[in-house]
Every structure is written in C-alpha cells, then in structure tokens.
Amino acid sequence: MKQNIQYLCRKLAVKKLLESKAQTICMIVSVILTTVLFTTAFSAIFYFKDSIRKVVMENASWTAHGAVAEVTDEQYETMKQNPDISDISCYQHLGFLKEETQDEVVEIEYSEDTIAKWMNFGLSWGRMPSEKYEVALSQQLLTSKNMPSDSSAEGTPIHLRYEINGTRKEGDFIVSGAYEKKPTSNEVLFVSQAFFEEELLQVSGEENRDSMLGKRVVEVMFPDTSHIDKKMEQFVTQTGVQDHTWFLNPAYADNSQTDPGIAAAIVFVLFLIMCCAYFIISNIFYISVMQDTRFYGSLSTLGFTKKEIRRMIRIKSDVLCLFSIPVGLASGFLLVRSFLPKIMQPFITIDIRDIPGPLMFVSAAVFAYVTVRISCRKPARMAAEMSPIQAKRYVSVTSGKKKFSRNGHKIWVMAWKNVTRERLKSVCIICSVMICIVLASFFYTMSRGLDMDIYLQNAIRNDFIVGGSSYFNRMEPDPSAIDAVLLQTLKQADGITQSGGACMCELDVPLDDKAYQKLLEIAGEDYFYEDGVMHNTLVYGLDDYIFSQMTATNGTLDPEKFQTGNYIVVSGFFQSPDNESCYEPGDKLKLPVGGRIVEYTVMAVSELPYDYTVRHRYADSVELYLPSQEWMMQMQSQDYYMYAFDVTKECQPQWENQLSDLADSGREFAYQSKSTFRKQFQGFSEGFLLLGIAVSTILGVIGLMNFINVLYSSIYDRRHELAVMQSMGMGTRQVYGMLIAEGGYYMLTAWICGILFSLPVAYYMMVSLSDIRYFHYRFYPQIFLIPGLIGCLTALCVPCFIFYTMNKKEDLIHRLRSGQR
User: Fold this and answer.
1) What would the 3-class secondary structure string for 696-748 be?
2) How many CB atoms lie within 10 A of CB 443?
C-alpha cells in the first residue's frame, strides 16, 4: 500500500508539472539560472585558485609539496621510510654545460625519473640515462647542435663541453631521451648515476669552487595539501633534518591560510545567490500552490497525509533539479571559460585550458539543489495544511493594521498601500533588483576605472623593445647579445623617433671600509661574502635615452656630466625598503676592469626601469650604471642585450610585421611591443566587463522574474478585490494606473536603494583595489540610467499585461463570484 501511495505521489507530481507548462518553464529557467550563478561563483573560487597555483608552479619550476637541501645518503634512506609522505625523489648537482651556442645557464644533474617530472622535465621521448655516458637533454639544445629533436635522435652520439668544480672538460655522450623546455623553466642536462659518481670521485680532495657540488636535494609529496606547512615541519623533525634548509613549494605555502576577508566575501556571495534564488523559486512554488488550492484540499479529503502532500512538492522540485541543474552546470562552466582567460591574460604566462576538478561541479550542484529544497519548504507546508474549507476561502493578502487617510481614495495612495500590505514580498523584489544594479555598477566602474596609459607605462615604456631570443623569458641566465648586424639594420630603418639601448656585464667590485660597513648595515651581519668584495655586481652601460628615463632618489642626474665618463650612478640595495645604497653622491668607487682599477665619482642613487634591465637582480649587491661609450671602451665590447625605440604612428603596423617575421625566422631575436600589451589590457578590461554584464543580466532576469511572479500572485489574489472596486465605479484605466503605480514603486525604491548602496560598495572597492596602480576610481552616473530605463518599461508593461491577460480570461462577473465561493 505504501509503495502504491509513493507511486501515485510521483505520478501526480509529474502530471501537475506537465499540466502547468508556463509555471514549469519558469521553474526550470529559475533553477538553471541559479545553477549558473553557483557554477560561476565556484568556478571563480576553484578554477581561479587552481590556475593561479599552476602559474606559481610554472614559475617555481617544480610541483612537489616541499624540498630539503643537502641530504646525506643515510638521511635519504630514513626519509623514504616515513609513512606520512606519499612519494619522494631527489636530484644531485654536478656542474654546468659550457656550449658556445647556449644562451642560458644549463645545469648538469643526476636526477631520478620522478623528480624530473616534478620539475617539468618529463621526457617527450626516450628514457632517463642509465648507462655511464648517456644523457637526457632538451629538444632546444639538440636543435642548437643541428641534430633532430624528435625520437630519431635517440642513440645518436653528441659532443658536449662542460664544467665541473670550475674545471672545463669535454666528451662524447649518447642521447637517451629529450624533453621540451618550458619558457619559465631553467634548462638541465641529465647524466647517469655512474657518470655522476665517477666525476665526483675525480674532484674529491680539490678546493670546492662550486658550493652545490654533489649536494642532494630531496622533494616530497604528501597525500593531500591540508595543513601542508605543519606536515612538512613534522616530516623534517621525524627524519632528523630540521637543521637543514627546507622549504615549501610557493604554490602550496599559503594553502592552509585563508584570509578572513576573502572567506567572508565568498560566504557573502554564496548567501547573496541563495537569497536571489530563494526569492524567485519560492515565489513560483507559492503561485503554483495557490492556483491549485482546491487540488491540494481535495487530496486531504481523499486521505492523503500532510507528509505525502509535502512529498509531492519535493518530487516536483527533484524532477526540476534533475533536468535543470546539469544544464546550469554546463552553461555556467562555458560562461566562465569564455571570460576567465581574458581576465587573467595580462597577469600570467600559461594558457588556461584545463577542466576544473569535480569538486567545483559537485559544490555548485549541491548548493543549487539545497537552495531549491529550501525554497519549496514553505509552499509545501502550505499545501499540506490546506483543507477543503480553507482551499475554498483562502486569501493570501494580509491587511495588517487598519489606517485611515484622507487621501486613501487616490490612485497613488492605494497603490502604495498595496505595496506595503505584504512587506516581505516587497523587500524580496526590491532586494533582487537592487543587487542587479549594484553588481552592474561595480563591474562597469571597475572596467572603466582601468587606465590603459598607466598600465602601459608600468608594463612597457616604448613602442618596441628588442633583445636576445630568451631575453623576455629568462630566469637567471647571462643576457645574450643582440646580433650586431641586425641591430644596425634596425637603427637605420625608417620611422624611429627616439631610441636607446643598454649593455651589461658582471664584475666583482671591492668595497672600501665605509661602503662595506654600510652594506653590512643594510644586508645584516649574516652577509654572504666576508671578503669585502661585492660579487656578481651588474654593471650597465646606458645610452642617453635610457639614462633620461631614470629618476634619482638621492642626488641629481646630470646628463652632461654623466657623458664625460668620470661619473657613475648606483642603485639602492635590493633588500632595503627605503632604497638605501652603500654609496652616496660624491663617494669614490673603484671598478676593476681588465686587470686594472678605474675610479669613478658617484653622481646619484637611482633605479633603472624594470623593462630596461636584464630582468633579474642579485640580492647581495647594488647595480652600477655607466655611459654606454665609457662602458664599451672599458669592457672592450659593443654588445647590447636590449634596444628600445619609439616609431611614428603610421609606421607601427609595418614595424610590428617586420619584427614578428624576424622573431619567427629562427634567429636569436625576440621583442615586445606596446600594441601587444594594449591588446592584453583590452582583453582583460573587455572580459571583465562582459563577465559583469553576463552576471548582472542573469541576476536581472532573476529579479525581473521575481517581479513578474510577485505582481502576478498579488494581482491574482486580489482579483475579487479589483472586481469589487470596478463594480463600484473604478474604471479600467484607473486599475491600470494603480497597478502601474505599484510596479513603479517597486522599481523606484529598488533603483534608489541600488544607487545609495552602490556608493559605499564603490568606496570599499576603491580601497581594496588601491594596490592596482593603473586603477582610478571615478563615479559614472550613466550606469544607473540603463537599469532605471529598464525598470520604467518593466513597471509600465508587466502589470498591464498581467491584468489584461487575467481580465480577458476571467470577466468581471466571474471574478465577483469567485469571492463568494
């Protein structure tokens, strides 16, 4: 019997859905939109977070959870036995490759296969070295040696020059495999364990000129990333390596910490979506129950229990969710996939194409389903409580306190009393429309407040910057020089308005007592070098134009004095928050060049703009800047590592095509252009605006549907009341006017509240975005005009259409009699 009742409940629920097609369609649309909003929110949480983590991993060049340096054989064996880790692997440093064709630092390592994959060196073909003289290397290195980069190179001999502990060597090897080098990763040459141990044995007893020679670095993976910092601390303590240098992967370092502000924002957004969805879905179910009062009252007469009637409502909601949630998940995911890459494009170097994990879809589906179930609870309870007598006489409109007014007969007063008669529904409509206005204002203000000129000034100062093939992707290699013939050709081309380049070399600069003490004061007493020499100091040679782009933080930059070759400019110390330097204007600086000492007078302390630098700095030294002619004379070199120039507007497309062809020709050449950054910025701004329009439109549709449903239920419940007023002399036009006034009150209140609420939201937005240098807050009143215009049209058309449809379906006599039943 129980099974028969359950079957009957399911059948009746599905039948009512099929009979009320208009309501069913509204319910399906509302559930789909709700799921789209939840999918968008969780995509922004999971998808964005995962993408940022992948970017950090790309830049960090490893994917393991943590690493420990300088691990002995015994300690490594102990680590392997630890039950808290899921995987472990290691590599050991041997030396450096010293080929003439290479333009980056290439490290030689013995590495286990697992850790090579963790460091983004997974082989495209072949295997890791096992025989003594086998090597695995990058496909780019094979290409530079005029060898095939595909699997046909496996087993072929290759002659390599390398350096171990400061001693240059060369030898013949066999290619066992190759990997594809990523732009953000260093290059590594992998050797076999037998070769590693033999070479290490040969240099044993020698002076250690390579601080990492033979040192083992161990990387570990844990079963999950929750509280990974505590797991790593516990792991190094248990294995007895807590005194060693150990660290977490930057992608996971802050995984266990959740910013309270971000968490509160996420909770608020999810709550906002649930409220919007609750307003409309609950309203639709309420209208469905009110229109079927006699049906549910009859079920009580036929013996259906309250629990079974509630089950029918739940079955209706489950059927709706079954068909609507998958559509909403797919639509929401496509929406985010369309806009997120554009928004993130200026800030990352990898392409976002991976599909997010199932947790995102599960979370969105669960929240959407829970919202639907919560929304139908009250209508289900009302249906279950419906008795035949209540169904006959049920009127949903509550009168509240009776108030007397001399203007009560006026249309606009009657409309306002109808609006305030059911305050909860009025608040629902106003809030749903107001949310749409606030979000639209936020996205529009954000997109319009992004200043392209300031962004370009921070990203790239010139129309074009050219450099070596890996200049814009390098991590820590020495800068490669631009081909002199190619550079001379570019200089002589038409359209250049202003230009300049820079040279660079590294020198060990001795410090006098004053400068050394100042350096220790800034860097701390644990300064790496104790010999009074500032090692690996970057010494630049700057053309006049590049020098003109610098700004002094101490002293004065005088171009004429600078060109005499008697002066030098120094930078601040990298670790100093106040940009302090170990030199001051007027100090004497001795520069060792070619076995002799050249003395210069410090002119000023200044910084070279980032887009002109070699794009890396040493933390234990300052930078030095000389005129390019003086630099070339002293260093006996004319190699530019970068050259920047502006061209006339009409020549920019021609230059863009020319430089693009050069970059694609296989020559050691790369470039960046202002137009590329401009397109990235436009993509970000447009993507953000389009995403805002999409989200605001979805919320607007929900608000509009909520407005229509509330008005429909209000007019439908008051159809007898309206008929009585018409029978007492109120004309049809007056009824239309009163209903239009009601809709106008809803929209006007929502519009005013939206404006008032947007102002503090915009202010806090401005504060939170203060770190974005190219964002400027401005008030844009025009963004409120579009919602206002749409609200006016909605308030005018929707009430008239609802009453016209009801009046056409039920005449005055029918509506008068409906109140007497």
Assistant:
1) HHHHHHHHHHHHHHHHHHHHHHCHHHHHHHHHCCCCHHHHHHHHHHHHHHHHH
2) 20
Q: Tell me: pLDDT of 805 over 50.
A: yes
Within 10 Å of residue 719's Cβ, how many Cβ atoms?
Answer: 19
Please tell me the predicted confidence (pLDDT) of residue 644. Answer: 92
Structure tokens of 204?
Answer: 């044993």
Report the C-alpha dihedral over residues 668, 674, 680, 683, rounded to 10 degrees: -140
Using the predicted structure, report yes or no on whether residue 349 has a pLDDT greater than 50.
Answer: no
Q: What's the half-sphere exposure (Cβ side, CA atoms, 13 Å) at 90?
A: 19
What confidence score (pLDDT) does residue 251 get? 65
CA distance 626 to 570: 9
What residue has token string 């939201």?
761
Nearest-CA neighbor of 764 among 781, 777, 750?
Answer: 777
Secondary structure (DSSP) of 253-322: TTTT---HHHHHHHHHHHHHHHHHHHHHHHHHHHHHHHHTHHHHHHHHHTT--HHHHHHHHHHHHHHHHH
User: How does 30-69 read in b/e, with b if 16+ C-beta sit within 10 Å?
Assistant: bbbbbbbbbbbbbbbbbbbebbebbbbbbebbbbbbbbbe
Question: Hey, what amino acid is at 514?
Answer: K
On the 0-12 / 13-18 / 19+ scale of CB atoms within 10 A, 290 is: buried
Chain-centroid distance of CA 75 in Å reads 40
Range list of H helices, 558-610: 559-563
Residue 298: exposure state from Cβ atoms within 10 A (0-12, 13-18, ≥19): middle
Please say whether the beta carbons of 774 and 455 come within 8 A: yes
Distance CA 182, CA 122 (A): 11
Nearest to 415 by CA among 714, 160, 24, 778: 714
**DSSP structure class, residue 355:** P
* pLDDT confidence tier of residue 476, bands split at 50, 70 and 90: very low
- Would the pLDDT of 268 be above 80? no
Centre a 10 Å sphere on the Cβ of residue 383 and count the other Cβ atoms it contains: 27
The Cα–Cα gap between 705 and 31 comes to: 12
Reference 672, options 458, 500, 457, 467; nearest CA is: 467
CA–CA separation, 66 vs 253, rounded Å?
A: 9
pLDDT of residue 548: 92
Measure the CA–CA gap between 573 and 164, rounded to whole angstroms.
Answer: 32
Q: Categorise residue 67: left if φ over 0, alpha if ψ from -120 to 50, beta otherwise.
A: beta
Distance CA 435, CA 696 (A): 8
d(CA 269, CA 275): 10
Coil, helix or strand at residue 123: strand
Kindly state the tokens that stand for 378: 């009250």
Q: Which of 140-149, 223-232, 294-303, 683-692 has the lowest mean pLDDT?
A: 683-692
Query: Is residue 148's pLDDT more than 50?
Result: yes
Range with the poorest average pLDDT among 109-113, 396-400, 458-462, 477-481: 396-400
Angle CA 723–803–376, to nearest 5: 100
- Summarize pLDDT for 294-313 with one digit per residue, the tens: 677 777 777 777 888 888 88
Cα–Cα distance, 62 to 422 (Å, whole number): 60
Residue 116 amino acid letter: A
